Amino acid sequence: MPDHNTQLIDLLTVLVPRMREHGIVSCDVPLEEGQLKLELTPLQIVDVLHNVSTVESAARTVDALSPEMGIFSEAVVEEGLHITKGAILGFVDVGPLRLALDAPVSGTVLLCLVPVNSVVGYHQPVFRIQPD
After folding, report:
1. Looking at beta carbons, which pairs linking 46-52 to residues 24 or more positions away fall under 8 Å?
2. Residue 109 belongs to what H/E stretch?
3. Pairwise CA distance, residues 15 & 108, whole Å
4. Are 114 and 41 in contact (CB under 8 A)?
């Protein structure tokens, strides 16, 4: 089973950038035991979220970054919640591994930038935090 998950992550590592490069937001991938339906969040949504606050609040907000490319599988905090530095905000699944996404600073969670069960890239912003 771990080989299967590693192969799936390898496939996603190649497929997701190609889909973004060619503007494809959805595709079906046949697998041995079924089919994987892959839907990407349009980049415009993420870009808009970045552009809205980049200039105004770049110095006032901090992004919590994905520790690795994988599937953002669970958010354990909600927007508006006060968190402390090092608190677990969510998890990214990389094959059989479940990596914690830690808060880089203490503060208030402003936004969750990525929907749960979405593919995230290495160091992709997942949460935006307003430091204390």
Report:
1. 46/113, 46/114, 49/111, 49/113, 49/128, 50/125
2. strand 107-112
3. 34
4. yes
What does the pLDDT look like over 41-99, one tens digit per residue? 655 545 555 555 555 545 589 999 999 999 999 999 998 999 999 999 999 999 999 99
Strand, helix or coil for residue 87: coil
Identity at 72, one-letter amino acid code: F
Task: Locate 24 and state its tokens.
Answer: 């494809």
pTM: 0.58
| Rounded Cα gap, residues 92 and 121, in angstroms | 10
Residue reference for tokens 């190609």 = 18
> Looking at the chain, how many residues does it have?
132
